[in-house]
Amino acid sequence: MTDAEALYDSILTEVSHVLIGKENLVEHLTVSLLTGGHVLLEGVPGIAKTMVANLFAGATGLSHSRIQMTPDLLPADITGTHVYREGTGEFTLQKGSIFANLVVADEINRATPKTQSAFLEAMEEEHVTINGETLSLPDPFMVIATQNPIDMEGTYQLPEAQRDRFQQKVVVDLPSADEEQELLDRIDVNPNLGPDDVAQVVTADAIDDARREVTEVHVAPEIKTYIRRLVEAVRTHEAVEYGGSPRASIAFLQTAKARAAIHGRSYVVPDDVKFHLRSVLIHRLVLDADAELRETTVADVLDSVEESIDPPGSTMDELVPTPDGGHQQGDDHQQTDDDHQDDA
């Protein structure tokens, strides 16, 4: 078992002691942790968005903070400010909640756009500027933000620049009937079941080793071309006014490599890219004015693009790297998600 695979399995196993039916969500979070990305979780209230973030923080053992985003919150409440100390007659720096490895921004779309913008510099450059002083954030640094759907009362839609800082956006669905039944059974036995029931199962060194392993995952030229064609097809779609930037292409590359690593592969297959099609692009698209008249949604655009762009097929050069840095010919070693269903 590889370092990244062992890390993912440990986190998933520990979080599953409390969490029910959110395995894909843990996978998305692990992928972003290993690639320096940030995740936006969207869903109606009461479906464990914040719980998932807190459980993930507990299992990883990273220093973490939770910021409850409200309309009266100010940027300085997040980043920090200099405070005058009457006893010494001096100003001292009081760091904000953003100075943690893992920052949970709860209900981020309840804060005003001005306050939301406090995350822009931190999420892109991993440092913040306070009164002209630039301060580095802890490494690794990851933001997990939650939000309610934008059509709910009392929320502000995140600006495009803010949304683009998130490597992935994951829509959290309601549980199935069986999952909700199991949830009721667990809560009946342990009414206080929550983040305190999750223990740290990985170390900082293990995270560093797994992150290095991800960087060494092989990506065949055909896979890179597939990524470029997907992003290009979205940009040129008739219903899209603004598509994904090169940052989206890079997000595809990084998330695909991380997913390959946590499933025990040293190379990327097309399914690694397809798995992240929606999480990487769904929040980056801006539809044109006629899309609503045509009753076209972002999901419709992504579905049509996925169908129109053929992934590299079984007759292509093998995706597995050879010792000389190339890749093999044939199908004997090609693997898809079917080979790793037991790993997920």
UniProtKB/TrEMBL annotation:
Q: Name one GO molecular function term.
A: ATP binding
Q: SMART domains, per this entry?
A: AAA
Compositional bias ranges of the Basic and acidic residues kind: 329-344
Lineage of source species: Archaea, Methanobacteriati, Methanobacteriota, Stenosarchaea group, Halobacteria
Coiled coil ranges (UniProt) are none
* Pfam families to which the protein is assigned, alphabetical: AAA_3, AAA_lid_2
Which Gene3D superfamilies does this one have?
Answer: Magnesium chelatase subunit I, C-Terminal domain (1.10.8.80), P-loop containing nucleotide triphosphate hydrolases (3.40.50.300)
Q: What is this protein called?
A: ATPase associated with various cellular activities AAA_3
What domain of life does the UniProt record list for this protein's source?
Archaea
According to the entry, every stretch annotated as the AAA+ ATPase domain falls at 35-176
Q: Where is this region: Disordered?
A: 305-344
